[in-house]
Write a structure and sequence with these properties.
alpha+beta; 75 residues; four-stranded antiparallel beta sheet; globular; 4 strands
C-alpha cells in the first residue's frame, strides 16, 4: 500500500524552496527516491506531519541502487 510523502528542498536560510509530492510503499523507498533531489541541496522528507529524515547532498550523491521506484504524483 502506498503512502503520501513530500521532499522539501531547503535553502541556505532554512526556508523551503520547493516541494515534490510522491507516493512510496515504505519510508526506506521514500528516502531512496528523495535522494535524487539532494544534488540541489539539503532535502527534508516528510510523510504527512511526520519528519522522516534530513538528507544532505554529501551523504547521498551519487544515487544508490533502487529496488523499486515509487510512483511520482505532482501537485
Amino acid at each position: 500500500m502506498s503512502q503520501q510523502y513530500r521532499a522539501y528542498l531547503v535553502g541556505e536560510n532554512g526556508v523551503f524552496r520547493s516541494a515534490e509530492a510522491f507516493e512510496a510503499s515504505s519510508d526506506e523507498s521514500a528516502l531512496a527516491f528523495a535522494r535524487q533531489f539532494t544534488r540541489h541541496g539539503m532535502v527534508e522528507v516528510w510523510q504527512l506531519g511526520r519528519k522522516i529524515a534530513v538528507l544532505n547532498s554529501e551523504q547521498s550523491w551519487p544515487p544508490q541502487q533502487q529496488q523499486s521506484r515509487p510512483t511520482l504524483t505532482r501537485q
